[in-house]
Design brief:
426 residues, 2 strands, 2 domains, 19 helices, mainly alpha
């Protein structure tokens, strides 16, 4: 039965593309509308998978078949110039149609036994994302710069509203959550996902939105209404504060929002103390080096934010999985970033004199002062803080010697990871 259903669904993908291509030619519908109709149809069918399939393996086989079809349409010129125009006529590069089945497979593996937690992320991806794109392209007049081009406030508002309803209604009808809890969970979830959708690029929202929705949802539904209300206040207030302070940095809007989401991810994996450390980097780095002629250019985006968080997020995730405290390694990674950023800024102001040791000392004092305070100032933690200083100095000095402007952030992420590695042993 599973095999027959899988073949039928894979065949329906081809039939749907043929039908949409015929409609596209007959009625001259826009490329965005054709693409979103395919997106909606795929989402609706995906919502039925827990009722059709009984095993992850069957869904995996179906997913690989559909992905193969979509890859053939993308790669073969004859198909790309016919049914492929349904997916590839938009004026932007996108892997969205390939990310969609992968996200459905992973979500099915995680949540198919809890149908409501499978359905909510897919409802948001299917309808909120499509509504936002269509509303934004037709009625969007208030624009803002996102990672993947320009988006509109109207489109983002539509995403929030549909995303809120896509979470609130199922939670209210099909779970034991109370009215207040359902409302607050839906508001927080929609707020975070509209930011995530804005910072994703190249169609990766089709992968990240449903999986992050599932993770956030499972985290929030365990909290009482009082804590959910406090969390909503903190999230909204900190987002506003970060946007205001971000004007003093070289991060653009996607970089600021990406950093905000990564802070929230760390909060979910650990606790609030882990959020203090990256916030210190964000707040302190403009003060640790003189402002340069490049300081007014907001050129660093979500990729920069991810590079800064890469090592620290790895330690937070490792601690969550292994049930081990990697806060020392986490703090050391961010101290290294703060030192390198300060030295680079100093180098722009005074070429040939980046003062890596001095900047390392200042960055170390900021981060490990907070580290000691957050840990209670015990003797062992003070010793750890002292040992961290030469690691920060060495990584900052070597970064200055080896990195170049073209690969600066890759080198910086690597330097922070290597500098923090010894701390994992202690």
């Amino acid at each position: 039965m599973n095999g027959v259903a899988g073949v039928a669904i894979a065949a329906s993908v081809i039939a749907l593309l043929v039908a949409l291509r015929a409609i596209q030619k007959r009625f001259a519908i826009s490329p965005e509308l054709a693409r979103k109709l395919f997106h909606i149809a795929g989402g609706v069918v995906s919502l039925l998978l827990p009722y059709i399939f009984s095993s992850v393996a069957a869904v995996a086989v179906m997913t690989f078949c559909i992905t193969g079809i979509l890859l053939a349409i993308r790669l073969l010129p004859r198909l790309r110039g016919s049914v492929g125009l349904v997916l590839n006529s938009v004026n932007r590069p996108s892997l969205g149609e390939l990310c969609f089945p992968l996200s459905v497979l992973i979500l099915y593996a995680l949540a198919h036994n809890q149908k409501v937690y499978f359905a909510i992320p897919l409802l948001i991806l299917t309808f909120a994302d499509s509504t936002a794109a269509l509303i934004g392209s037709r009625y969007g007049s208030v624009k803002y710069a996102a990672t993947d081009g320009v988006k509109s406030v109207e489109g983002s508002a539509a995403f929030f509203l549909v995303g809120f309803l896509g979470a609130h209604v199922p939670l209210l009808l099909w779970t034991d959550l109370g009215r207040e809890e359902s409302l607050l969970v839906a508001v927080i979830l929609a707020f975070l996902l509209v930011i995530l959708e804005a910072v994703c690029w190249g169609g990766l929202d089709n992968l990240f939105v449903p999986l992050c929705a599932y993770a956030v949802l499972k985290n929030l539904v365990t909290l009482p209404a009082s804590e959910l209300l406090a969390r909503l206040s903190i999230v909204a207030g900190s987002a506003a504060a970060i946007l205001i302070w971000g004007k003093r940095t070289t991060l653009n809007l996607s970089g600021i929002l990406g950093g905000f989401l990564l802070c929230y991810a760390v909060w979910m994996l650990a606790d609030w103390r882990w959020v203090v450390i990256p916030l210190l980097v964000f707040v302190a780095h403009p003060f640790l080096a003189p402002r340069t002629e490049f300081g007014g250019y907001r050129i660093h985006d979500v990729h920069t934010a991810f590079s800064i968080f890469a090592a620290g997020l790895t330690w937070a995730l490792a601690g969550y999985i292994l049930h081990h405290d990697f806060f020392y390694a986490y703090a050391l990674a961010f101290a290294t970033h703060l030192a390198i950023i300060s030295a680079v800024r100093q180098g722009f102001s005074s070429p040939g004199n980046p003062k890596p040791i001095r900047k390392s000392l200042l960055a170390w004092a900021v981060i490990f002062g907070a580290f000691a305070a957050l840990r209670g100032g015990g003797r062992l933690d003070l010793l750890r803080a002292a040992v961290a200083l030469p690691c920060v100095c060495a990584a900052t000095y070597l970064h200055g010697k080896l990195a170049h402007q073209g690969n600066r952030w890759e080198w910086e992420a690597t330097a922070a990871g290597l500098a923090s590695l010894p701390a994992a042993l202690w």
